Amino acid sequence: MQVVSVTTKGQTTIPADIRRKQGIRAKDKVLVYEDKGEIKIKKVQDFFSLKVSVKVGRLVLKREEKEAAQRYVANHYLAKKKKIEKYG
Domain total for the chain? Predict the structure, then answer.
């Protein structure tokens, strides 16, 4: 457990040893959420880094579409986590 500072912009740094243990690298995405009064951070696979078996050419997404997809991934993770907690 380590104490870190929060900047005036609300930013903080995840300590290097924790990043290494969790496999978090620069440009990775993390899910930040509140759970029972605690702030939690969880590494998530970036939806757009997934490889697909069929190459369909270059796909350009609008910002809104990308944000909607990221919200879907985050909500899906939280729903799965709540279900696990509920049923053990």
Answer: 1
